[in-house]
Design a protein that fits this description.
The chain is mostly beta strands and 186 residues long. The chain has one helix spanning 165-171; strands at residues 11-12, 18-19, 23-25, 47-48, 59-60, 66-67, 73-74, 81-83, 88-91, 96-99, 103-104, 110-111. Residues 75-109 form the EGF-like domain.
Length: 186
């Protein structure tokens, strides 16, 4: 108890020198495997590795432990919160996600819109990267609904508008799209 570091928030490693990157809903996730070396992968009810920096409330070896609003545990769930949304690699030195091609955002949490920009990896946080996106802010889609519009240069070659699936749905006779990827699929 006297020869170990207890890391501050967003720091990890045996000497607390490594940064933790932002988390987002995973585009794709899988069971994490045998984390406690018991030679078996537990199900969604078996919480292991509690109190770690990355999983302070614990994690499961199987698919994420999820429940509906009534408290019923759901089997074979997906899209749990993962570092860099499971679509990027964490730079432990800077604490920034290096997104895979086709994804952007601080946590690689959304699909990128096509761009003719010669920039760094989208969402990398480096100068010149496409970390923001241009959303539709016309007269009908989410006017006054508190949605933010962030202008992104060179999206859609400067001749189009990048929209989320939620916004596209709304523009189609005010349909409502409220699934896990409503703000992620562009």
């Amino acid at each position: 108890p006297h020869d170990m570091c207890t890391c501050d928030r967003n720091w990890q490693g045996s000497d607390c020198s490594l940064r933790t990157c932002p988390f987002g809903k995973a585009h794709v996730d899988t069971p994490k495997g045998d984390l406690d070396f018991s030679l078996a992968v537990g199900d969604s009810n078996d919480v292991v590795i509690t109190g770690s920096t990355v999983y302070p409330y614990g994690t499961t070896e199987g698919y994420p432990l999820m429940a509906d609003t009534a408290g019923n545990v759901l089997d074979n769930t997906g899209h749990d919160y993962m570092e860099c949304s499971n679509k990027g690699l964490c730079d432990r030195g800077s604490g920034q996600c290096e997104c895979l091609p086709g994804y952007d955002g601080a946590a690689c949490q959304r699909a990128s819109c096509p761009s003719n920009a010669n920039s760094h990896t989208p969402g990398s946080g480096t100068e010149g990267s496409n970390t923001n996106f241009k959303v539709y802010n016309g007269k009908s889609a989410f006017l006054g609904a508190g949605r933010l519009s962030i202008t992104q240069t060179n999206q859609c070659s400067g001749h189009g508008t990048c929209m989320t699936i939620e916004q596209l749905s709304y523009l189609d006779y005010n349909n409502v799209y409220d699934l896990w990827d409503k703000d992620m699929t562009m």
